[in-house]
Specification:
Blueprint lengths: L11 E3 L11 H7 L4 E4 L4 H4 L6 E4 L1 E3 L6 H8 L5 H9 L2 E3 L1 H12 L2 H19 L1 H21 L19 H4 L6 E2 L6 E3 L5 H8 L1 H4 L8 H12 L5 H6 L6 H13 L3 E3 L1
C-alpha cells in the first residue's frame, strides 16, 4: 500500500519547519514516484529538490541567536521534554506563505509543468539516490577518510577546544544554516492585510496554545501591528519600543507573526 499510494497524488508537499528534520527521505520518495515537490527551503531539503526543476523550495525565516537561549535552558534542565522543545523552537520558524501559494497555483494550473517537474525528479532520484549510487558514494567517502587517517598517523593530537560548549546550545545558533535566512535587526517588516481576529484564532489553536508562555502576549502583538501600521517597520526599532525585559521575546515574536501570516519581511 505504501509503495503504491504515491500514484494517487498530483503534487507532493512537505513544509518542514523544525530542527528535527534533517535530510528528509520523503521528498526523494515522491520524486521517485514522479511527483513535483513543494518543500520548504530547509536543511537537507535544499540538497534534494532543485528549485524550478523538480519542484519549488519555499523560503524560510528563523529567529536568530541569542533569542533561543531560554528554550535551550528549559530543555537542558528538564523543564521541557524533547517534543515541546522542538515544538517551541518551531514556533519561531516561518515558511513564506505567499511563495507557497504561488507554487501551488503554478502546479495546479499547469499539467505540463507538473509532468515536466515530476519527470525531472524521477530521473534525479534514479541517477543520484538509487542505492547503487549511494553505496558507491559511501565507499568513495570511506576511502577518502582512510587516506586522511593514514596521513595523520604521525601528526600530533589536536589541541583541546579553548571553550567547552554547553550541552544545550541556543537552537537558533546551532541550526542557523537550516533556514533560508534568519531575521536580521535591519529587516523591514510590513503588514499582510490579515484581519487581527486571525491572531486570536491562531492563539487558541492546539498548534500554538501549548507554547503560549514563550510567545509575545496578545497585547504585545497588537502593539507590534500598530507600530508597523504607523510606520515603525525596522525589526530592531519595533523590539526597542518595548521594555528591555520583553525586547527579546518581541524580536523573535516577529517571526512568529510572520509564520501565521500577520506580517512579512518586505
Amino acid at each position: 500500500m505504501r509503495a503504491t499510494i504515491w500514484n494517487a497524488a498530483d503534487i507532493f508537499t512537505s513544509l518542514a519547519d523544525n530542527i528535527q528534520e534533517t535530510f528528509g527521505l520523503t521528498p526523494i520518495e515522491a520524486m521517485a514516484a514522479g511527483l513535483p515537490a513543494v518543500v520548504s527551503d530547509w536543511d537537507g531539503y535544499r540538497d534534494t529538490v532543485r528549485h524550478g526543476i523538480d519542484g519549488f523550495r519555499i523560503p524560510t525565516l528563523m529567529a536568530p541567536a541569542p533569542y533561543g537561549g531560554d528554550l535551550a535552558l528549559q530543555h537542558g534542565s528538564g523543564g521541557l521534554n524533547y517534543d515541546h522543545y522542538i515544538g517551541r523552537t518551531a514556533q519561531f520558524v516561518a515558511v513564506d506563505i505567499e511563495a507557497c501559494a504561488d507554487a501551488y497555483a503554478a502546479l495546479a494550473n499547469d499539467a505540463e509543468l507538473r509532468g515536466t517537474m515530476g519527470e525531472a525528479g524521477r530521473q534525479r532520484a534514479r541517477s543520484d539516490y538509487d542505492w547503487s549510487v549511494v553505496i558507491a558514494a559511501y565507499q568513495e567517502f570511506w576511502g577518502k577518510l582512510g587516506a586522511i587517517r593514514n596521513a595523520a598517523k604521525n601528526s600530533p593530537p589536536p589541541a583541546p577546544p579553548e571553550v567547552v560548549r554547553p550541552a544545550r546550545p541556543d537552537p537558533f545558533r546551532a541550526f542557523a544554516d537550516y533556514p533560508s535566512k534568519s531575521l536580521a535587526p535591519t529587516d523591514r517588516l510590513v503588514l499582510t492585510g490579515a484581519e487581527r481576529e486571525w491572531l486570536k484564532i491562531v492563539r487558541q489553536s492546539p498548534l500554538v496554545s501549548y507554547a503560549e508562555e514563550v510567545l509575545p502576549t496578545e497585547a504585545e502583538c497588537e502593539q507590534i501591528v500598530d507600530l508597523i501600521a504607523r510606520g515603525t517597520e525596522i525589526a530592531i526599532d519595533i523590539a526597542n519600543a518595548f521594555p528591555t525585559s520583553r525586547q527579546g521575546i518581541v524580536f523573535r515574536g516577529l517571526v512568529w507573526l510572520a509564520k501565521f501570516g500577520l506580517i512579512r519581511v518586505a
